[in-house]
Structures
1.
Amino acid sequence: MADSDDSTVDPKIWVACLACYNGGSLHGRWFDVGTDPDDLHHEVMAFFAKGCETCGEYERECPECRAFAAPFRCGGEELAVHDHEGLGDVGEAYDLPRLCAIAALVDEFEDRPVLAYLARVDEDVERAREGLREHYAGRWDNLAEWAESWAEDAGLGTEQLWPYVDWERYARDLELSGDVETLDVGGAVHVFRR
Ligand SMILES: [Zn+2]
Ligand SMILES: [Zn+2]
């Protein structure tokens, strides 16, 4: 199941061997996604790969083993991401540079909506980083609350905000406070201000 925008979950992927999957068996496991794709790839290969003839086992430091397409113990050689958490809607591609870049972004901006930004604003990680860094204006209960604070900070005067005042609500409050009394007579409102 694809996960939601919940970036509080540590990023991880379930990596599957495609040959086994197509043959109807489960060959794979969960891996934590850190920020280094090279590290992660070798952790994955240490699980799947048969290793080369020189070392007999898969060794991270062995140049022969480091070849990307080293065959697996089961004979398969292709990988897919069949489940994931904490990374947004990343699909099934075994694209570790992108997955690790997303994990790094989540790590960098813990309190900001990284996955939602990637999903709804810009899926490009570098542009998302810029947007999250340069344009984030904080978390608010609603946009009106932010707008009020922003107008205050920007020192906007009454005249600039005049067109946006909710006069009906203001009038109702004046009336309720007792500062103003009204008499409806002849289709008009007669106002008395104390
Ligand atoms: Zn397999
Ligand atoms: Zn080797």
2.
Amino acid sequence: MSIHFYEPRHGHGLPHDPFNAIVGPRPIGWISSLSQAEVPNLAPYSFFNAFNYVPPIVGFASIGEKDTLRNVRASGEFVWNLATGALAEAMNITCAAVAPEIDEFALAGLTRAPSRLVRAPRVAESPVAFECRVTQIVQLQRADGQAVPTWLVLGEVVGVHIAQASLKDGIYDTAAAGHILRAGGPADYFSVGPEQLFRMFRPRPASTPD
Ligand SMILES: Cc1cc2nc3c(=O)[nH]c(=O)nc-3n(C[C@H](O)[C@H](O)[C@H](O)COP(=O)(O)O)c2cc1C
């Protein structure tokens, strides 16, 4: 097998950096928060994932100081909203680099629904939302210890909203919910449906969820 090898610190030597396309498709952290001036904020973060099961902890990385980071630092709270195919265009609009006094819910024609345990609103049109309390904000660093201007925000999920329509006999139906995922390049996304589902059980009894 002929291999293209590169050291990222010296460049990738390709027309586009393949990193995002390789670590993908990624779930999208569509994060709502509230500023100190009480302005709602909503933005997508695809450097996002789940990191623990009990208690559930999710995290996203802010590459640079952004409104969401400032809001979650000040309030200690955020909401994760599920991005679906039906909400793709609206999600994309909310990534606009606008002033902190602009409410991206209004910009994207979305409805703010009140959360129950945190003050940040959730996206009413989204079938799933996690209300989160910030647990850690970690500034990333290079292997040599040099600080990187990226902050990983981790939050415990303290409240979960699931549209009843996404539950089939009480089981959450990932394929039916129409999740969208971010891949590489300037515009690549994937969606998942029943045709992508396959099942494989562990060879020994499971002690953790995956
Ligand atoms: C699908 C998608 C994923 C994104 N992922 C990230 C990310 O992981 N980290 C980041 O800093 N910006 C990411 N961005 C860009 C932010 O959404 C953008 O900078 C936005 O203006 C930040 O909003 P805020 O200042 O209101 O927090 C992403 C944009 C899109 C469309």
